[in-house]
Design a protein that fits this description.
Length: about 140
Amino acid sequence: MPIVEKLDEYGKGAWIAFAVLGFILFWPLGLATLAFLFWSGRMGCGYAGDRYEHRMSRLQGKMDRLRERMAGREGGFGGWGRGGPSSGNRAFDEYRTETLRRLEDEQREFHDFLGRLRMARDKAEFDQFMNERRNNPPAQPDAA
């Protein structure tokens, strides 16, 4: 939905304005917008998981969609290559290509870092569980 992506770019204020405008123009549109906002978790409601991970997964989804759109333009007419259309300045084109490559590497490293961070958190929780279990062993049934 192009309107959803556009309103997401502007943030919560745009969604609130859209819902109010929907109520003013045609109340079922405002009601549908409100239901969508709560259901999708855009207003911080209705999402039971970790909000930071939810936000990062949404950001990653946006980056993936952008990458797909840019990949669709590669090799097409108009001089689109890895860094977009040629500016006519070869030094700038090389700089832009190198910068985009560096940003992709940083994104990959950050994604790997988040994975390691989740793994460390999971390991810490598991270790805590095992320590509690060792300190409080389950009751043994009496053998008669």
